[in-house]
Design a protein that fits this description.
Blueprint: E1 2-5, E2 8-10, E3 13-15, E4 20-21, E5 26-27, E6 32-34, E7 37-40, E8 44-47, H1 55-66, E9 73-75, H2 81-84, H3 87-93, E10 99-101, H4 103-113, E11 119-121, E12 127-129, E13 134-139, E14 149-154, E15 158-162, H5 181-196, H6 200-212, E16 219-222, H7 233-242, E17 251-256, H8 261-275, E18 280-284, H9 290-299, E19 302-307, H10 316-328, E20 334-341, H11 347-357, E21 361-362, E22 367-370, H12 375-396
Parallel strand pairs: 8-9, 9-10, 10-11, 15-16, 17-18, 17-19, 19-20, 20-21, 20-22
Antiparallel strand pairs: 1-2, 2-7, 3-6, 4-5, 7-8, 12-13, 13-14, 14-15
Helix pairs in contact: 5-9, 6-7, 8-12
Bound molecules: flavin mononucleotide (FMN).
Length: about 400
């Protein structure tokens, strides 16, 4: 239990060992934290809980520090198991305590726990007086579930933002100014790219709405990772940027190969892009963490994706990335496709079609080479890279 502002305590859990989240869908190279907050004002409020496997230690800590019976209300900003999982066990001890949540939140708590507890449905602007502080609720539907909301602690100027502005990042320290900035921002952008990209329009609208409220925010305390206390608005500004067709002006070449032919093509295309002054990163998607690939796609302006043909189709790791791309609905990105083949050569066309369906502007016809590319083939690949670079520059100008 650590005091983050007078009378406001972090009562979360650091999960150092977590390496996979959302089943196997999200890699967590640096673990994660489940941040729960306790406000010990005249009334005692608990905001969010922790993931189910950690419920025992979490509840014991709360009981030891304040006595469970002294909790006057619980706020559930979001009902996903990593934040609300311990609620079931907590409510066994204090079954009548009021739970403040959105209308969707109450429905989803019932969906998860099949219990009809004492729900207090709140909307944006509703509030609860705690004594010196007041909790003010801000609905954030689809950021990133229909139930999501944030809780603002008026008087302390703390925004308990739940999943927004969070990162899967376990660190010895609690605050943004105490940790490695490279690690912190890598985890923050990875979180945005992999979880929030489909909701960028909503993010922009919500940020505008919050700015118009004209509230002072001295601290943003999300439900995963570190707390933003040093210039907390810097992460809000980043979200504004990331939600606005963000890119770093580079090209990501993503390839998959069985015997190395498509890799040779990838490197030749990269050379062509570099010849024309475009920054390029090359990744073997079969060997790379998929969420890191998604983060790199998020950062790039252009995506050139290659796979050799297998059984008239594409290699499975490429297919998996394309499925993720489809759901994430990237915007304002350009692309093309390539690949080696033996006799029928379907893969580049399949990639082209799937990227186009996912909203990419395919600015060049795909290129394919039979079996291992000859030196002449590689010159053609290099020229392909140069032409892509020229078109990309035209789009920028
Ligand atoms: C199991 C297997 C299935 C393949 N199926 C096809 C196919 O359906 N059509 C085709 O054009 N080539 C097919 N190929 C040939 C490869 O696409 C070809 O060898 C290519 O050069 C491999 O490129 P890579 O080294 O980048 O994987 C197949 C190869 C293997 C090993």
């Amino acid at each position: 239990m650590m005091e983050i502002k007078p009378k406001i305590y972090w009562v979360g859990i650091k999960d150092w060992e977590l390496r996979r989240f959302h089943g196997e869908e999200y890699s967590t190279h640096r673990g994660s934290t489940y941040n729960s907050y306790l406000i010990k004002d005249k009334k005692i409020a608990l905001v969010d809980t922790v993931w189910t496997p950690f419920h025992e230690g979490f509840i014991q800590q709360l009981d030891r520090e304040i006595g469970l019976k002294n909790i006057n209300l619980i706020v559930i900003n979001h009902t996903e198991q990593d934040h609300a999982g311990s609620l079931l066990y907590l409510m066994e001890k204090i079954p009548n305590v009021p739970i403040y949540c959105t209308k969707n939140g109450a429905a989803m708590i019932k969906g998860h726990f099949h219990k009809d507890w004492n729900f207090n449905i709140v909307k944006t602007g509703d509030s609860v007086e705690l004594g010196d502080y007041k909790l003010v609720f801000v609905e954030m539907p689809m950021l990133h579930w229909p139930d999501s909301m944030a809780t603002y602690v008026a008087g302390a100027n703390v925004l308990l933002s739940n999943d927004a502005f969070g990162q899967h990042y376990a660190a010895p320290q609690l605050y943004n100014d105490q940790v490695d900035q490279g690690e912190l921002f890598q985890e923050a952008i990875k979180y945005y790219a992999n979880i929030l990209t489909p909701f960028s329009d909503l993010v922009k609208r919500k940020l505008k709405e919050v700015k118009e409220l004209n509230i002072t925010i001295d601290m943003i305390a999300p439900s995963h990772g570190i707390i933003w206390r040093d210039n907390p608005m810097q992460i809000v500004e980043k979200y504004d940027l990331w939600a606005s067709g963000y890119h770093e002006g580079t090209v990501a070449i993503l390839y998959d190969t069985m015997w190395g032919a498509t890799k040779k093509m990838a490197l030749a295309i990269a050379k062509g892009l570099e010849n024309k002054g475009i920054g390029v990163k090359v990744f073997n998607v079969g060997r790379m963490d998929k969420n890191d690939v998604i983060t790199e796609i998020f950062k790039a302006k252009g995506i050139i994706m290659g796979s050799s043909t297998i059984n008239k189709g594409i290699l499975s790791d490429t297919a998996s990335i394309l499925e993720m791309i489809k759901g994430l609905r990237f915007r304002d990105k350009i692309g093309s496709a390539f690949g080696s083949y033996g006799w029928s050569g379907e893969s580049p066309k399949i990639i082209e079609q799937r990227l186009a369906e996912a909203g990419f502007d395919m600015i060049m016809d795909p290129i394919k080479m039979k079996y291992d590319p000859t030196p002449e083939d590689l010159v053609d690949c290099e020229t392909f890279g140069e032409q892509f670079a020229v078109k990309m520059k035209e789009i920028f100008s």
